[in-house]
Amino acid sequence: MTRRSARARTQAMAKPRRDGGAEGVAKSIGERLRRIRLERNLTINSLAKVARVPASTISKIENGLLKPSLVHAINLASALNENLGFLVDRYRAEPQRTSVVYANERDRLEYKEMGLTLHDLNGHFSAGLLEARYGILKPGAHSGREPMTHAGDEICCVVKGGIVFHVDGERWTLTAGDAIHFKSDRPHRWENAAKGNTEVVWVFSDGLSF
How many domains does the chain contain in total? Predict the structure, then answer.
């Protein structure tokens, strides 16, 4: 396996991180959402009806005043027939046949209301069947009180700590080394089961992920 040259590594380390401030991230997401909506020839009201997201919420997202919740992001992505990768900078980047994501260069997405930080593991790989994320769940983190659904399969493997999954009426408690695999169109939600941070690896199929 080849390693990058010292020069390439130095250049990469010199790059500014892409997570940026909250205002910058919200603005970037909003601009991307507006562009995709207009490409689909949709008004805010028509998108709101299809996505089941209030038009006022979509307007605030597009104007950089609000970051979408996970449930709203999933609904918007499904309505637009897009991967949730439209929330991160790499979405429109030039795809690569082989993508290596070094630990200190991962794109990150913060869901503060959920206590969740997601690290992108796909990098600039060509969009396709699988998407992977490294998740860090703070104490008390949860996906929301209401279950979510989306297309494809979902796999979650616990690296550290513990997580509880509620899937279609069943409850599963996982600790380090455990994994769960289920069809994501079944209503599901999760919560951190540890007193400290929990770290997991998520893998999603059908191109839909968060």
Answer: 2
Give the pLDDT of residue 19: 43
For the stretch 50-105, pLDDT in tens is: 998 999 999 999 998 988 877 788 888 888 877 666 655 445 457 788 889 999 98
Is the pLDDT at 18 greater than 70? The verdict is no
Rounded CA-CA distance 133/118 in Å is: 6
Q: What is the DSSP string of 28-83?
A: HHHHHHHHHHHHTT--HHHHHHHHT--HHHHHHHHTTS-PPPHHHHHHHHHHHT--
Classify residue 6: in a domain, yes or no.
no
User: Where do the H-state alpha helices sit in the chain?
Assistant: 6-14, 22-39, 44-51, 55-62, 70-80
- How far, in Å, are 59, 62, 104 from residue 68 at the CA level? 11, 10, 26
How far apart CA 101 and CA 125 sit, in angstroms, is: 10
Q: Are residues 120 and 181 in the same domain?
A: yes
Give the C-alpha separation, 7 to 198, whole Å.
Answer: 35
- Same domain for 111 and 72, yes or no, is no
Mean pLDDT of 147-164: 93
